[in-house]
């Protein structure tokens, strides 16, 4: 049958295929499902927040170190926060501040920041900006349904940085006293509120009418009823007696640290990237 295909048609088909390459070379979990709009950014407010047209745009799936705030409500700073902000500003500057915006299921948070996945162009390629930040080791992967696009991409990018002991991941060995990004449950203090990866042995798994309960020695992990659909309780029960890493926003309540999680990606032993 190939003998009936003329050479001009073959050349035309091949040329057309080449023109489509920018749209298919990233046909993986890091590639956009759809770029909603290309815009010009202004600057990075932090390692996970960008100012675009005088509004705050929050990167989905990424949690950067917290910059210290000395305003009305004091916020502790976390290691390498300024370096993370600088890295994001450098990425933006190297791409003429032009970014592609992809929305997910939930458009904004309670602070009226717009949730987005951002992209930059490098020649004919469209590169996931979140992936660049995570591979730099200056941000942590984060999960919060229903914004579930590119989760495998983001956790794999973080895993690469961790394996290479880059930036934040070098602190795990060089400065374990910082309790960041990994906070051992047995060593946490009142300074360890905020987003961390809490590590410890699960001593109890239970459930109440409102929560699935996973307790470490000093850290309580809670999965609210609204998120139960994302979890298999049998898998959670199997974690009892095992050392796990669970990531989320730690907060103090009655002398104990608690963290709410919303997705199996937040627990290392349940995360598909680690299977």
Automatic annotation (TrEMBL):
<keyword id="KW-0540">Nuclease</keyword>
<feature type="signal peptide">
    <location>
        <begin position="1"/>
        <end position="27"/>
    </location>
</feature>
<feature type="domain" description="TNase-like">
    <location>
        <begin position="45"/>
        <end position="171"/>
    </location>
</feature>
<dbReference type="Pfam" id="PF00565">
    <property type="entry name" value="SNase"/>
</dbReference>
<dbReference type="InterPro" id="IPR035437">
    <property type="entry name" value="SNase_OB-fold_sf"/>
</dbReference>
<keyword id="KW-0378">Hydrolase</keyword>
<keyword id="KW-0732">Signal</keyword>
<keyword id="KW-0255">Endonuclease</keyword>
<dbReference type="GO" id="GO:1990599">
    <property type="term" value="F:3' overhang single-stranded DNA endodeoxyribonuclease activity"/>
</dbReference>
<protein>
    <submittedName>
        <fullName>Thermonuclease</fullName>
        <ecNumber>3.1.31.1</ecNumber>
    </submittedName>
</protein>
<dbReference type="InterPro" id="IPR016071">
    <property type="entry name" value="Staphylococal_nuclease_OB-fold"/>
</dbReference>
């Amino acid at each position: 049958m190939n003998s009936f295909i003329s050479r001009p048609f073959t050349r035309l088909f091949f040329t057309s295929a080449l023109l489509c390459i920018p749209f298919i070379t990233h046909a993986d979990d890091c590639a956009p499902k759809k770029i909603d709009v290309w815009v010009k950014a202004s600057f990075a407010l932090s390692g996970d927040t960008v100012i675009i047209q005088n509004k705050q745009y929050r990167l989905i799936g990424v949690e950067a170190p917290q910059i210290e705030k000395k305003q009305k409500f004091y916020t502790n700073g976390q290691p390498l926060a300024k370096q993370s902000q600088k890295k994001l500003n450098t990425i933006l500057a190297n791409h003429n501040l032009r970014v592609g915006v992809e929305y997910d299921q939930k458009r904004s948070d309670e602070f009226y920041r717009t949730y987005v996945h951002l992209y930059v162009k490098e020649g004919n390629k469209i590169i996931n900006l979140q992936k660049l930040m995570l591979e730099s080791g200056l941000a942590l992967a984060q999960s919060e349904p229903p914004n579930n696009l590119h989760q495998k991409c983001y956790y794999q990018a973080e895993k690469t940085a961790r394996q290479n002991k880059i930036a934040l991941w070098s602190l795990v060995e060089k400065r374990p006293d910082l309790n960041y990004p990994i906070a051992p449950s047995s060593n946490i203090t009142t300074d360890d509120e905020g987003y961390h990866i809490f590590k410890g042995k699960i001593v109890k798994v239970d459930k109440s009418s409102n929560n699935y309960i996973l307790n470490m020695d000093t850290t309580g992990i809670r999965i609210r009823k609204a998120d139960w659909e994302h979890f298999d309780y049998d898998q959670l029960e199997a974690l009892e007696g095992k050392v796990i890493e669970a990531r989320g926003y730690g907060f103090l309540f009655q002398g104990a640290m608690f963290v709410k999680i919303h997705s199996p990606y937040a627990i290392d032993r349940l995360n598909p990237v680690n299977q």
